[in-house]
Task: inverse folding
């Protein structure tokens, strides 16, 4: 792959969307080709699956069905969007990827992480991010941000605080398994401070792109 695949992870309300935009804008200012995308979604089919997954009306959705739906959206996303972009030399910035399934459905819902990894092996087609940045954020503050946003709270965000705390601890556990690929960044700070740390982490990966592949 010519491009680089960078993923931002974290609990709901941790500031991923804001930080992803800041990172993308800075990379574009350097003349680098950048693609923003997200999970679940990123494709026409994935967005339809997203509507089911996040709609509060579907309270009866069981954890294993939820896990399979995330994997299905991911399979479409990888095949249709991420792999083609990487092949062209694009830097792909993704809001959530496989680790979200491991943290939310694994640590949050209680499904075995090994089972989730097996389910997602064909979905990812073996794709592993070059860098996964975890924004570690206080769960109570995350929910406060969501509640103050004024938007509709989705099905996952409506889970109890204990669920979101398990997810947060799950992310930290995942980072501990493979510290070379993860960067855990304290997101309980001003936006600009967090952004500087994200840029430092990303530059270590992006600087490996050959000069010829860095042009849009």
Result:
């Amino acid at each position: 792959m010519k491009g680089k695949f960078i993923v931002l992870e974290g609990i709901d309300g941790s500031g991923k969307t804001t930080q992803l935009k800041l990172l993308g804008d800075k990379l574009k200012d350097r003349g680098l080709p950048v693609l923003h995308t997200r999970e679940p979604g990123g494709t026409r089919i994935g967005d339809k699956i997203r509507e089911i997954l996040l709609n509060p009306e579907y309270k009866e959705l069981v954890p294993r069905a939820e896990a399979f739906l995330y994997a299905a959206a991911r399979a479409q996303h990888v095949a249709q969007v991420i792999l083609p972009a990487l092949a062209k030399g694009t830097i792909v910035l993704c809001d959530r990827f496989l680790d979200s399934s491991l943290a939310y459905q694994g640590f949050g819902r209680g499904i075995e992480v090994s089972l989730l990894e097996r389910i997602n092996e064909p979905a990812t087609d073996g794709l592993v991010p070059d860098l996964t940045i975890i924004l570690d954020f206080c769960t109570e503050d995350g929910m406060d941000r969501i509640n103050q946003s004024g938007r509709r709270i989705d099905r996952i965000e409506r889970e109890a605080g204990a669920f979101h705390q398990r997810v947060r601890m799950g992310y930290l556990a995942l980072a501990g398994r493979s510290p070379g690929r993860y960067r855990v960044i304290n997101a309980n700070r001003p936006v600009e401070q967090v952004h500087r740390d994200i840029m430092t982490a990303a530059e270590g990966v992006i600087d490996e792109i050959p000069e010829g592949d860095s042009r849009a």
